[in-house]
Amino acid sequence: MKTFGITGTIGSGKSTLSILLRRRHLPVFNADAYSRTAFQKTAAPYAAVVDRFGTSILDANGEIDRRALAGVVFADEEKRVALDEIVHPYVKEGLLRFLNHHSADALVFAEVPLLFEAGWEDLFDKVIVVTCERETAIRRLMEDRDFTREEAEARLSHQIDPSVQIAKADVVFHNDGSVKDLDRALGSWLMKQRKERHGTERR
Q1: Is there a single domain that holds both residue 122 and residue 141?
Q2: Where are the beta strands (DSSP E) in 46-138?
Q3: Distance separating alpha carbons of residues 182 and 135, to the nearest angstrom
Q4: Is residue 50 part of a domain?
Q5: Is the pLDDT of residue 114 over 60?
Q6: pLDDT for residue 77
Q7: CB under 8 Å to 102, separation ≥6 — which residues?
Q8: CA distances from 143 to 33, 49, 140, 173, 190 (A)
Q9: What percent of the chain has pLDDT over 90?
Q10: Nearest of 99, 106, 141 to residue 120 by alpha carbon
Q11: Is the pLDDT of residue 199 over 70?
Q12: 17 assigned to some structural domain
């Protein structure tokens, strides 16, 4: 098994890359999707989140309202760090279970938006960074998520500098073109991975 962590700033296309991998029937863990389960009443982090941020983040059914929670932590770095300290261990445990479950697969992937911020580089054999120009990301956020330009710029301003990600990456996909362009680049890269693996097996 060879493991790859996928990361990139918002709007870069890392989720699109993950979708293209799944279409090829390759296993991909989604850290964002898994982290959302942390806020369910039955999940271990639920009580700690409510204890730290108060009942104002709960809806009428006692469930954590993720939009209300985001409003509390988005503009407050100390609170954002506190939330990460609660949720990250839960997500890491789920990720490790996923990797173990797919230990017989040749190539295994995990999409982790905060991979470098969490210090999870050592969990993977290689790190893939999907990146694009800032204007490309802004346009995608405005077109695909109905952000205003100001909202898009605000979200990007809270992200890690893409140049830092690129410097730490083992593999970089520059994604300023179409989905077909990214798909072709991914196909070529996967072909090289398979050739390398077969070459190693023959030696």
Answers
A1: yes
A2: 107-111, 126-131
A3: 18
A4: yes
A5: yes
A6: 85
A7: 1, 27, 108
A8: 22, 33, 5, 21, 30
A9: 86
A10: 99
A11: no
A12: yes
